[in-house]
Amino acid sequence: MSKDVDAMKNFLASLGLPWTPGKTQRAELKASYRIGNTRPLTVERTTVEFNCDENRPRIWVPEFARTSFHVWFEAPQQSFDFAPNGTMLKIRNTAHGNAGAYTVGLKPL
Fold it and tell me: Maximum distance among all alpha carbons in the chain?
């Protein structure tokens, strides 16, 4: 799970936000949600919450909560990837039972 925590820490640092354990950070971002190879649902501007917890890092995207999507994206249920010098935090979930695989992308405006 440290890979997921590091990805969130590095993404927050790229936004100029500190990782403060036990606190929630907020940022205005662009978000997209893609199931399989379908066309993504894109939200041009939303306030995303980052729960800074070493044991259970998680992210909340309010627009996705209004659909059948997950309210919280959290490790270890999903994996978080952020490439060094990148601009997008990718959240991936593998297929489970009838639920298809999906990818969420978060990037600065």
Answer: 39
Q: Report the top-level CATH class of 1-106.
A: mainly beta
Which token pair is 14? 């790229």
The tally of CA atoms less than 13 A away on the side-chain side of residue 27 is: 22
pTM: 0.87
- Per the CB < 8 A criterion, the answer to whether 28 and 38 are in contact is no
Taken in order 38, 60, 31, 66, the sign of the CA dihedral is positive
Q: Check the CA dihedral 35-37-39-87 and report its sign.
A: positive
Q: Locate the domains of the chain by residue range.
A: 1-106
pLDDT tens sequence across 52-106: 998 889 999 988 776 655 668 888 888 999 988 889 999 998 877 777 788 899 9
pLDDT for residue 11? 95
